[in-house]
Amino acid sequence: MPRIVLGIEYDGSGFFGWQWQTHQRSVQQVLEQALSKVANQPITVQCAGRTDTGVHALEQVVHFDTTAERELHAWMMGGNSNLPNDVRITWVKFAVDDFHARYSAIARFYRYVILNRPIKSALLRKQVTWCPSQLDANKMHLAAQHLVGKHDFSSFRAQGCQSKSPCRAMYFIDVYREDDRVIIDISANAFLHHMVRNIAGVLMDIGAGKQPVTWTQELLEVKSRKLGGITAPPDGLYLGAVYYPEYYGIAKHPVFAKLPADAKRHD
After folding, report:
1. Residue 38 above 70 pLDDT?
2. In this predicted structure, what is the pLDDT of residue 265?
3. From 11, 52, 65, 235, active-site residue
4. Cα gap 165→1, rounded to integer Å
5. Which CATH number fits domain 3-104: 3.30.470.10, 3.30.70.580, 3.20.20.150, 3.90.180.10?
6. Class of the 107-239 domain?
7. Residue 264's pLDDT is what?
8. Looking at the DSSP assignment, which residues form a beta bridge with residue 63?
9. In this predicted structure, what is the pLDDT of residue 266?
10. CA-CA-CA-CA torsion sign (175, 49, 163, 13)
11. Fewest CB within 10 A of the end CB: N or C in the chain?
């Protein structure tokens, strides 16, 4: 049975997350419905990483198995013609060997975008998180470097996180300013529930001068979510890209050039 791999982008503001919901709209739901029409049979997809309510994707990676024989362009064109305007398939290819969208991934990259100005945006209100307090991006970047490496991220996981282990390998975090936006680029082998949003909330407090630069290190040491500050809104969060070993032939986002050598050892 052929396995098809897709890259998709979506505006998460109109969805209650990636995963199927009984009475709410989800990205998985509309994608499976669109592909099922092309295949003329039920299609079930597997994704690289589930996104929460309101979270966007610049490139989510999914795969599915099917006995339906279609040209690759038919999956893209037919799928997009059946998708709503807030989801698009951007590329399609046949899977190589044992490829799995989730379990074959080595690293994930997320981007968090903060609009840092006194006035909210009328146009980007669901695509960025607004912060009127002046943020010091340099302090935020310095504080973020304490999180790089293998750590117990208990202070940065949601209370209801179901992951068996709080430990993750953080490959890099860059915080920088572009005009009136402060951007957080972050990559790890995997992420805990609300981990990026909790990190963003902590860094925003540091950038606003409410906490010292050392606060990130202190939170790693106490391993308590109760001391970890606010969970930043979902609006500014994007799943940016997923990194796979070279032999799977999935194009690499330029940001992955920053990955340390040991993170690429499976290539």
Report:
1. yes
2. 59
3. 52
4. 34
5. 3.30.70.580
6. alpha beta
7. 67
8. 5, 46
9. 55
10. positive
11. N
Active site residue 52: yes
**CA separation for the pair 63, 92 (Å, rounded):** 10
Sorted by where each begins, the domain ranges of the chain are 3-104, 107-239
Average pLDDT over residues 257-265: 76
Equal fold, 3-104 vs 107-239: yes
Per residue in 130-163, pLDDT (tens digit) is: 999 999 999 999 999 999 999 999 999 987 777 8
Helix axes 215-222 and 137-144, enclosed angle (nearest 10): 30
What single string gives the DSSP state of each residue in 117-181? SSS--SSSTTTSEE--S---HHHHHHHHGGG-EEEE-GGGS-TT---S--EEEEEEEEEEEETTE
Query: What is the predicted pLDDT for the residue at 159?
Result: 77
The whole-angstrom separation of Cα 116 and Cα 177 is: 9
List, for residues 46-95, the tens digit of each pLDDT value: 999 999 999 999 999 999 999 999 999 999 999 999 999 999 999 999 99
Q: In this structure, are residues 110 and 237 in contact, taking their beta carbons and an 8 Å threshold?
A: yes
- How many angstroms separate the CA atoms of 108 and 124, rounded? 25
Ramachandran quadrant class, 202 (left: phi over 0; alpha: psi -120 to 50; beta: rest): alpha
Cα–Cα distances (Å) from 235 to 24, 113, 214, 230, 255, in that order, read 18, 8, 27, 15, 22
Six-digit token pair at 207? 């950038």
**Residue pointed to by tokens 């208990």:** 154
